[in-house]
Amino acid sequence: xxxxxxxxxxxxxxxxxxxxDLTELILGYARGEVPxxxxxAFCMAVFFRGLSPRETYVLTEAMIRSGETIDxxxxxxxxxxxxxxxxxVGDKTSLAVAPIVAACGVPLGxxxxxxxxxxxxxxxxxxxxxxxxxELSLDEFIAQVREVGTAIIGQTGDLVPADKLLYGLRDVTxxxxxxxLIAASIMSKKLAAGAQAIVLDVKVGDGAxxxxxxxxxxxxxxxxxxxxxxxxxxxxxxxxxxxxLGAAVGNSLEVLEALDTVRGRGPADFTELVLDACAKLLAxxxxxxxxxxxxxxxxxxxxxxxxxxxxxxxxxxxxxxxxESALPVAPVQHEVAAPVGGYVSRLGAIRVGxxxxxxxxxxxxxxxxxxHAVGVVLHAKRGDRVEAGLPLATIHARDEDAARHAADEVLxxxxxxxxxxxxxxxxxxxxx
Length: 432
Ligand code: URA
Fold this sequence. Notes:
single chain
């Protein structure tokens, strides 16, 4: 008998819950024995009172126990690596990192999610590729990682079902942005998916869940600690999300930019983050190389075309058309001109993300269909000099009306000043 009401009250009053009670509450919820209204109240109590490190670990373990787990490294006889981002605008990092790391001889198997709110999702990006299958069986997934070096698929329903339920509930009860709940949600999925080494990209700023470096640091420490307790190697990159990452925001536009980056022709900030992530992943892998050598190998895989060759094999293995001319293109392209000359001092990530969602690149409700062709391409980023009347961005839209609305939103995201703006790196800090 699960005493849900009593546990809600004890958490509301700030008590640390015993391991067995917290585990039973979560497993009971996953079995349908604890109703949504009690779990919603429990999440709100956690939102205000928090969870201790011990409780966060127990919650993570219970969520993992609610479903299947995969032993990727055991199945491949290799140390398999994985990466995850907490989500941001223009974040297509996984698409470029996976083939580069695989081209360096390190298997990377990844289960990804869809976009949330104004943040894009890897699965939505991949589904802009005609024919790409995001649903492989576990056997197909493992076989592809073995043969091609990489596979990116959707979360299988059997993995961490408690998180699926809990996330849906948190999404509609204003309890998503609680540090322990986020840490447990992300890490339960990463640990259940079985990689031995994980690089976590924790986004910080306007367009991220974590608005301050301090909050991001706490989330990173919580996730690194959960990984360590589970015997995995975890490194967290704290990276800038005050402005969108790279130039492209919107699904097929982001696929194109990721491919350009795999070919060595990506935007500077995005390329920098991709190479940082690859260097860390190779340093954590069984290649037994340091980070500097990892970076050198990643750069070489881009320069000699082997990363692009893996991209092609990976997309085709999952049923997709690797030729970029097959990607959908929006019928309307509309330029946003700079109203004045000067230096870009700010480019708000949320505003650009919201403009892309309104164009149809993201969902406003759970059941919305995505328009894979639409989005925004930014020609000027923070620190860039711009001339009055020249394009700041191009809107890719379904029709003129949608393009004009998005153009207003994107223009409002820019702040332009007379004085030069100092550079700020994408990688702000490393934890773990
Ligand atoms: N991403 C997740 O998977 N879970 C959260 O709680 C927040 C972001």
